[in-house]
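Re: Re: ligand-bound prediction request (bumping)

Still looking for help on this. To restate: I need the protein modeled with iron/sulfur cluster bound, output as structure tokens. Inputs repeated here so nobody has to scroll up.
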Amino acid sequence: MKEIVMADRAGFCFGVKRAVDAIVDALESRSSAKEGEVWSIGMPIHNPQEVARLEAMGLKIARNADEVPNGARVFIRAHGEPRAVMEGLRGRGETIADMTCPHVRRAQERAGEFSSRGYDIVLLGDARHPEIQAIMGYVDGPVDVVANVAEAENLPKRPRVALISQTTQQEELLAGIASALVPKAGELCVCNTICKATVERQDAVRRLAGRVDGVVLVGGRESANTAKLRDIAKANGMDVLWIESAEEMEWGWFEGKMKIGIAAGASTPQWLITEVCNKIART
Ligand code: SF4
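Reply:
Sorry for the wait, this slipped through. Here it is.
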């Protein structure tokens, strides 16, 4: 029988729990499915199994704001939306439940403030990620997105630069990007907008190193913070099996491993973690 060692921080963070709880409350408080449709713009969280559960309860998912019917109740996910999208929804008189995580809101506000004061904005993150796209939507002037130190080194010299991070990045990388920008900027302001929940889950994975024979990481394939946990586990010498649910377990991976660490991204619900633990415990 395998021994399971849980990471001491795993699963839903404050921002995701707040958003999911609000959607569930809205769905459950309707007296009928027809009364007040509940919509989300985009996947409300990067976890397909939890999204499927919410859809089964009646949540409708729009690809963009234009798809949300007039008069619907629309939830803004924790990643936030660009300012133009929010203004468009308000202009249409939609009932908005804004579940933008306060940490993401802070990054949006910093980007907007520095941009309006004439700083060129450099965002550390994944340019395709909805959180970065939402933050970019609060910038009025020049903005660059960099994912690594090499990309920062390629940026031109500029008089005033503000560096802001996607909330799920690693602090070491933010520090590396800041160092690369020092010779590129007459004046450099660095905003550490990495959220504590992310750092706590990353540190919890580091603490598994040397204590387990491998780590089962539970989280959505599109989850940026889960991908970071995978990178950290590997960088700390741990063999990682990244799965979305218990159905994806690869039993060959467990051969020769007795102590199994369990880690999970900030968008992984507890019920999925519990299913994975139960399945491993039964082997
Ligand atoms: S990871 Fe942090 S920033 Fe993102 S939703 Fe959770 S608490 Fe908010």
